[in-house]
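Structure (tokenized):
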């Protein structure tokens, strides 16, 4: 008998094709809540929330148990279908492909990986035919409403991908009516409009296709204030050119990520320049756009990247260097733009090239001129070691790297300059038009400004206060066109343009603008007021002035979640720094900047140990460039106290979220400070932890030793206790007994100090040490206490650590509960961008599944784990993950890959999890010749090659995995594996 479940419409069940009565609405809701997570336990509290939200009935657990009991009765006697309850919650077991939602996702995934468009289109159609209407329409719980919205988005994405595939397969005629209907329902969807244009064009209706473009363009401009995106414009252009091979209108779901923002204003002119960039990028690995400030290098680079980005399977990344004051930070800035962290034992530049080595990606480096040598060094490594990466740089002078193609960016020709002026003037005065007299005045303005886009935009901002003719007349005596002897006249005209706009500001606006030049990488209103305001003024006063600067195009608002942020363009910022002395002592405001961001970091460091961790992470992390500038100011002033305050505030905020750069700052601060300073021990701990993360244990010991046994004060960042780092070195080097002795003593100290955050940390490590000693039962009490202590703190990281510790000591005796705990730990850590605890939770969940639950799922999970540690750059954890992978592959019978990775571990000086007996079994399974070949091949693997080999083995596991029995308990140390060390 075959049971089928349907969620893509009403909640229904069918037995051999006949409907089954699944009860009233609430009982069907329970069934749906279990089917959405089929094969995975759903904790009782989570299930109650899904069914009743914030209005559960009296004794909700009893009501839920009754519904589940009735559902069990309906499913009794059916092969492979059952509902069980374990420590992790309720679990409905059945073949996922008997549930239409999971079958839909399975078919869509197959379609997206299909090689031939016709095959993909057929699979998409099969998936979409499963939809019978709105999912679970009778269920009104908020969780289901959110899920319904998400599923509708999945369905639309599948429809769009199906359209692309069908159009590529030549099915434009039969598809046209359906796309017309969908486009009418989604009139602002550019991808759908492009598909409609393509179907119309290929059906012989070119005028209709062009009319479709005009219609959506008008709506986008009227309703959103924006022009169509580059992909839709490209379809339009190719239809205009009668290109029969015009491509599908949009990217398939899952396209490579891009960090380019959509520009809110139109890109005018420079079509030939964009073609030059495209052609140069096809010929060589480095293209540098050069020209004076304000000529439009950045805008051209971003526009070109938008238009050619589809050529790069791994996407486009934009790295802005303008905020950097020190070339040493270039590598860190590039790594942050790529989303990777420094790998242990490697420099930041080696980390970047290792990450990029196997990727096909476009990297845009903007504003290189002030850190030219450092930028050139990073780019040179990329050019020589990353064959599929193209770098597009902007700089006022070439980088001087081998293979560089330099494309000078010239001012706009007169017609394009006039069009730019008119477009920007309309934004300030909607009725602005180019009649004959106005056209002559605009032409004069653009000639006097030498066609420099930034100068033109600044001048156009003045059109709200005067006519074009008056503006042109003022140029006759204005400093806009005055030059200095020996200077580039175009550059001087830009400086004059900025100067003129500056002189038109009120005195308070001028003062604020000049002081805003102290900020690196942006700022919010609180920072603007805290650093720049005059005594006696209020935050509202500062906001009024800031709005005035935004209106005058001197400050740019930045879109994004959370608090509103603002940016001063680098050219304007450089000018503002020159004006600082005119509006007050420059050193005084630079000092205020350093003090403000030090205080902000200190507030954040306290808050991230409490319930508001997420709020403060999102508040402080956008200001990493300002924190760097503040630290450099403290060093320049030789202000050891302020430097120590700053670096000891950052371990909680930055170290586990952005990478290990701040630990280097801590090392430099130690060299400034008196060892007797109250914060010296915490700074030594922060510096030592960074050396630990880089795998330099000798350096970690040396730095921790500078604390001379002193214990940092309460509230110090969890990772910054010097004695902890010494214990962690011992733990990682095999002396778990010494580490356990240290952490037991620290548990008692934390109890005496009534410090719950410190107590959770030390209890966590007691549990870890016991697991490493293979006595997890001895760590159970510590882990349970950690959970009890963590909950009242409401601190996500503390709660994550405690759940992880409990899962660790239960993974052999109660794997179901351990899995649920690891998943909760990962979710908590991820919610506050804590990449390290998120990663170890993912890893332990995968390792537990590999032995106790589902080897197929474990293979997929370990692919995610390997990707996570590669992004983070933590090779100590990557080696641990690889050991787990070796165990999994050996256990499920993929002998050759297990042997190869075993040999790779040994070649890298890392221990292998396979003992002599297991290796002998693998040798017998393979035969002498294949065993020797696998060993030799593995010994040649190194670094990223090991990870690539592991990925390939996990992506196509041996079919024998499906025949392995699922173990519910494990008493065999080899099968379960010894506990690896989750080291910071």
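Design, position by position:
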């Amino acid at each position: 008998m075959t049971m089928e479940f349907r969620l893509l419409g009403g909640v229904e069940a069918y037995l051999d094709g006949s409907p089954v009565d699944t009860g009233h609405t609430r009982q069907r809701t329970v069934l749906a809540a279990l089917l959405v997570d089929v094969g995975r336990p759903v904790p009782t509290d989570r299930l109650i929330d899904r069914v009743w939200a914030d209005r559960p009935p009296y004794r909700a657990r009893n009501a839920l148990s009754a519904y589940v009991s009735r559902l069990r009765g309906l499913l009794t006697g059916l092969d492979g279908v059952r509902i069980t309850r374990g420590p992790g919650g309720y679990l409905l077991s059945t073949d996922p492909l008997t549930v239409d939602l999971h079958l839909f996702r399975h078919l869509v995934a197959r379609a997206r990986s299909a090689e031939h468009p016709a095959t993909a289109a057929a699979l998409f159609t099969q998936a979409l035919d499963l939809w019978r209407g709105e999912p679970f329409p009778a269920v009104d719980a908020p969780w289901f409403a959110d899920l319904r919205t998400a599923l509708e988005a999945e369905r639309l994405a599948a429809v769009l991908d199906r359209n692309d595939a069908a159009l590529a397969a030549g099915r434009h005629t039969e598809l046209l009516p359906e796309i017309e209907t969908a486009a009418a329902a989604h009139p602002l969807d550019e991808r759908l409009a492009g598909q409609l244009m393509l179907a119309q064009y290929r059906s012989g209706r070119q005028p209709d296709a062009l009319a479709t473009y005009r219609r959506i363009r008008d709506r986008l401009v009227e309703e959103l204030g924006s022009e169509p995106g580059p992909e839709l414009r490209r379809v339009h252009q190719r239809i205009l050119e009668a290109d029969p091979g015009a491509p599908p209108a949009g990217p398939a779901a899952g396209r490579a990520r891009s960090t380019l923002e959509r520009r809110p204003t139109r890109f005018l002119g420079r079509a030939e320049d964009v073609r030059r960039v495209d052609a140069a990028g096809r010929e060589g690995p480095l293209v540098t756009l050069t020209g004076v400030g304000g000529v439009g290098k950045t805008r051209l680079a971003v526009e070109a990247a938008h238009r050619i980005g589809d050529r790069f399977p791994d996407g486009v990344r934009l790295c802005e260097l303008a905020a950097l004051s020190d070339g040493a930070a270039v590598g860190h800035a590039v790594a942050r733009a790529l989303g990777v962290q420094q790998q242990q034992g490697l420099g930041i530049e080696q980390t970047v090239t290792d990450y990029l080595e196997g990727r096909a990606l476009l990297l845009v480096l903007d504003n290189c001129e002030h850190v030219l040598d450092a930028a050139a060094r990073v780019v040179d490594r990329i050019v020589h070691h990353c064959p599929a990466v193209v770098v597009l740089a902007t700089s006022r002078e070439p980088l001087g790297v081998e293979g560089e193609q330099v494309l000078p960016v010239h001012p706009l020709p007169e017609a394009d300059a006039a069009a730019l002026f008119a477009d920007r003037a309309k934004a300030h005065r909607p009725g602005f038009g180019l009649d004959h007299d106005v056209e002559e005045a605009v032409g004069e303005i653009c000639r006097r400004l030498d066609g420099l886009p930034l100068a033109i935009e600044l001048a156009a901002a003045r059109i709200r206060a005067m006519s074009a003719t008056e503006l042109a007349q003022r140029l006759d005596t204005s400093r806009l066109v005055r030059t200095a002897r020996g200077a580039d006249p175009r550059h001087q005209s830009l400086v004059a343009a900025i100067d003129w706009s500056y002189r038109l500001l009120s005195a308070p606006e001028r003062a604020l603008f000049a002081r805003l030049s102290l900020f690196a990488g942006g700022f919010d209103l609180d920072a603007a007021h805290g650093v720049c305001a005059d005594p006696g003024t209020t935050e509202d006063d500062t906001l009024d002035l800031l709005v005035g600067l935004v209106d005058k195009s001197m400050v740019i608002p930045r879109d994004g979640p959370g608090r509103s942020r603002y940016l001063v363009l680098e050219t304007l910022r450089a000018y503002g720094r020159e004006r600082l002395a005119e509006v007050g002592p420059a050193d005084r405001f630079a000092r205020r900047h350093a003090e403000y961001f030090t205080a902000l970091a200190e507030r954040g460091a306290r808050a991230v140990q409490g319930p508001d961790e997420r709020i403060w992470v999102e508040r402080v992390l956008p200001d990493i460039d300002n924190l760097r500038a503040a630290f450099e100011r403290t060093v320049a002033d030789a202000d050891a106290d302020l430097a120590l305050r700053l670096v000891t505030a950052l371990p909680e905020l930055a170290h586990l979220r952005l990478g290990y750069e701040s630990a280097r700052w801590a090392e430099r601060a130690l060299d400034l400070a008196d060892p007797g300073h109250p914060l010296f021990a915490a700074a030594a701990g922060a510096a030592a932890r960074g050396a630990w993360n880089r795998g330099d244990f000798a350096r970690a010991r040396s730095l921790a030793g500078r604390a001379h046994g002193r214990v940092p004060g309460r509230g110090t960042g969890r990772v910054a206790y010097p004695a902890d780092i010494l214990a962690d070195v011992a733990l990682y080097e095999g002396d778990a007994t010494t580490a356990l002795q240290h952490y037991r003593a620290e548990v008692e100290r934390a109890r005496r100090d009534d410090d719950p955050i410190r107590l959770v940390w030390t209890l966590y490590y007691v549990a870890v040490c016991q697991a490493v000693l293979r006595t997890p039962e001895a760590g159970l009490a510590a882990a349970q206490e950690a959970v009890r202590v963590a909950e009242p703190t409401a601190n996500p990281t503390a709660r994550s650590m405690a759940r992880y510790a409990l899962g660790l000591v239960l993974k052999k005796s109660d794997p179901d509960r351990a899995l649920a705990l690891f998943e909760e730990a990962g979710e908590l850590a991820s919610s506050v961008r804590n990449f390290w605890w998120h990663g170890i939770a993912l890893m332990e969940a995968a390792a537990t599944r590999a032995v106790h639950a589902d080897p197929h799922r474990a293979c997929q999970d370990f692919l995610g784990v390997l990707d996570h540690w590669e992004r983070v750059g933590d090779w100590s954890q990557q080696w641990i993950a690889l050991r787990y992978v070796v165990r999994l592959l050996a256990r499920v019978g993929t002998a050759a890959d297990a042997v190869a990775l075993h040999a790779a571990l040994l070649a890298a000086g890392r221990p292998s999890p396979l003992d002599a007996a297991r290796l002998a079994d693998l040798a017998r399974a393979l035969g002498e010749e294949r065993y020797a070949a696998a060993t030799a091949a593995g010994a040649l693997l190194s670094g990223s090659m090991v990870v690539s080999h592991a990925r390939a083995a996990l992506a196509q596991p041996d079919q024998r995995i499906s025949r392995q029995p699922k173990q519910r308990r494990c008493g065999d140390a080899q099968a379960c594996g010894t506990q690896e060390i989750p080291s910071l």
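Reviewer-requested clarification: Confidence is low (pLDDT under 50) at residues 246-256, 477-491, 958-978. Residues 854-965 form one domain.
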